[in-house]
Fold:
Amino acid sequence: MSSKILCILRAGEGGIQKSWIPKVSQYADVAVSTFGTYQGDDLNVLARHHFNGSRMGGVHDFLLRNPGLIDAYTHFWLVEDDLYIPETAVLLIKNFAAVQEFELFAPAVSGDSYSSHAISVANRSFVFRLVNFVEQMSPVFSRRLLLKCLPHFNENYSGWGFEWLWDKYVRELGSFTAALDCAAIYHTREGGAGLLHKNMPPGTPSLQEQLDTFMSRHGLQRSQFEFAAVARGGGGRIVAGPEFFELSVRGYRYLAPMNITAYKWCTTGGLSSLQNADGDELAQARAFLSEVSKTKTFEDFLGLVDQVGS
Structure:
């Protein structure tokens, strides 16, 4: 079954969404949920919505007001207004969504992007990695995962902690979360610098308090792991354990001339996964990828990756 994606953009004044909406619109429908003084009248989109509140709360309100859209699409791509999205990334995201075994995935961010989490930075050794965390800046949900997660989208203002709950639900559905290294996008603004964070209502708990409360309420652990990956170079080779770490270090070498601190940051994350990830989960990740690799949609996706050379 082919994928049908609804891209839901949360946008305020100063966003750069006009740089990519025409590209995304070739492969997905786009709706915008605006905040502040921005109304989105300059955008050619499927639907407009205005909500002065949190980022994920805005998505929550938009979908509650437009419930028919949930049945109309197979996937929902939630996007911030400070991203630059190349057309090749959109094409790869569209085709990866057709691999139905994945309930949640997100494009990695380029090495010269602002990033708050090393696990989000694109690794050039891999087509994609299986992880337990993708940032809320640009996740793609299957319909059935969205329905499980939607009630929590307004549980706190910042959305901090949501990513671990999403992955918990992904695992309950028998899948793994994926970070698409082959489809890197650019995050152009430092984390926490946007208007939504700056305009938190008076009396809102601190970001750390929101995170701690959410994690405690849902029994979540604040850890980030990479379990396995599909290596570049054709053939869909699955790697995990020491081989994964070796390739991971190699795949982040491009960062060293730009920012040696970022290089060390990213490779340390891979080492932590090697040392601390649960052995049963590593085995499950390998088995999951082995089954996925037998599907025609996966084979077609790998062929596209080789073709576009991202």
